[in-house]
Every structure is written in C-alpha cells, then in structure tokens.
Specification:
Elements: H1 3-12, H2 22-34, H3 38-42, H4 49-57, H5 61-72, E1 87-92, E2 95-101, E3 106-110, E4 113-117, E5 122-126
Antiparallel strand pairs: 1-2, 1-5, 2-3, 3-4
C-alpha cells in the first residue's frame, strides 16, 4: 500500500482519541512501513482523550513529544523537500498537527475533522525512507 492509499483508508475512519488522533495515525503509517510503532518504542501511548490531552498540555506540547519519539526511534530530520510518506508537524494558526505527507500535501486530523496543508505550513519533518 502506498501513502495515498493509506491516507484514503485512514480518512474514512471517524476521529477517536484512542485510535485515529493525528499522532496515532502517523504512528500507524510508520508501523506499516517499518514494522514497529515509534510511540510504543519510546513508551508513549495515547489510550483515550485524557492521555491525549495530557500530552498536549506537557511543556513543549505535541511538538516536543513527537520530536522525542522520532529522534529516539532514529528517524532523520528532513531538511529539503519532503517525500511521500514522510511524517511531520504542520502549524495552522495556533494548532500543531502531526501529519503524513502524500505527493503534494500534509494530511492530518483532529476532533474538528480532516486537515490538509501544503509544505509551506511544515514546522518540522522526519524521513520514513
């Protein structure tokens, strides 16, 4: 399955804190691609809304959290244009979203619905290649 097919399947699922929040969606992509869950490897798991919101409320929030997860899991930062399947954080207004890149956009989701943004909204990204 390529990243576009993965995103299509994921976007059919309703949002839930325990399965389809932005972090777990990206984690599921990496698990499919590499055979392990970076979040579990790091010891970070979101079980429900309470644990999801606790992560968001930590110092540095989701940006620091995903940076620690991806660095601990040995994924390299993307310094040039992202490639399909890369994982990153996009910033939209005051909201940071963990996202998966297809061929032209970052895809994410939150309690309000689906999120898509071009690469100009990328804050940081990691290669999954």
């Amino acid at each position: 399955m390529n990243v576009t097919e993965f995103i299509g399947i994921e976007m059919l699922k309703p949002f839930s804190w325990e399965e389809t929040n932005c972090a777990l969606t990206a984690d599921r992509w990496i698990n499919y691609r590499h055979g392990f869950s970076p979040m579990e490897y790091y010891g970070r798991k979101v079980f429900d809304e309470e644990t999801g919101r606790e992560w968001l409320a930590e110092p540095g929030g989701i940006i620091r959290g995903i940076r620690e997860v991806m660095t601990h899991s040995c994924f390299a930062r993307v310094s040039a244009a992202p490639l399909p399947g890369d994982v990153g954080v996009i910033i939209l207004g005051r909201r940071a979203c963990i996202s998966v890149f297809d061929v032209s956009h970052w895809w994410s989701r939150d309690v309000d619905g689906f999120i898509t943004a071009d690469d100009s909204f990328r804050y940081v990204a990691w290669s999954t290649h």
